């Protein structure tokens, strides 16, 4: 399946830049990591570099796993929550991860080994529940 995600990636990048500029120093560290990952994705998508796309996939996953616990500002928690929601919706529609589709299912060896032991759907679900707890229950 051929797919072009340059425009959604640029829009996401611009939103992240806006969050970075308006956030406090603590949250800016993880937002910077997200910006770097997005640049890897945009560059990988433009140059059809599967290794850069896989690096961006790692950055995305780390931000989704760390973000719900790390972020202090609600707007950044909403952003991560929306990213998880989009991930679930696109996975439902395409029956695969968009990073894997775009990157022709390329994985670094350590990622392949890690994927044998981790249920990523469960990880994203727990991250979503942590965000809901922090935003609405805490």
Description of the molecule:
The model has no long low-confidence stretch (mean pLDDT 95). By secondary structure, this protein is an all-alpha fold. The longest helix is centred in the first third of the chain and has 23 residues, at 25-47. The chain is built from seven helices and no strands. It has helices spanning 6-22, 25-47, 50-70, 74-94, 98-102, 109-115, 120-137.
Sum up the structure in keywords.
mainly alpha
Assembly form of the protein:
single chain
Strand-pairing-aware structural class? mainly alpha
- Total of helices: 7
| Number of separate strands | 0
Instruction: Give the averaged pLDDT, no decimals.
Output: 95
Instruction: Determine the strand fraction and express it as a percent band.
Output: under 5%
Overall geometric form: globular
Give the biggest sheet: none
Distance between the termini: 43 Å
The portion of residues assigned to helices is over 70%
Radius of gyration: 15 Å
Uncertain segments are none
Secondary-structure element string:
HHHHHHH
């Amino acid at each position: 399946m051929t797919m072009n995600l340059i425009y959604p990636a640029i829009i996401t990048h611009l939103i992240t830049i806006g969050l970075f500029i308006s956030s406090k120093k603590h949250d800016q560290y993880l937002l910077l990591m997200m910006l770097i990952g997005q640049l890897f994705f945009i560059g990988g998508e433009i140059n059809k570099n599967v290794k850069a796309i896989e690096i961006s996939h790692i950055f995305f996953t780390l931000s989704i796993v760390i973000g719900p616990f790390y972020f202090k500002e609600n707007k950044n928690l909403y952003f991560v929550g929306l990213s998880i929601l989009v991930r679930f919706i696109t996975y439902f529609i395409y029956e695969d991860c968009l990073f894997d589709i775009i990157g022709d299912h390329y994985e670094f060896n350590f990622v392949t080994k890690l994927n044998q032991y981790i249920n990523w759907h469960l990880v994203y679900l727990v991250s979503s529940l942590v965000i809901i707890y922090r935003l609405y229950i805490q």
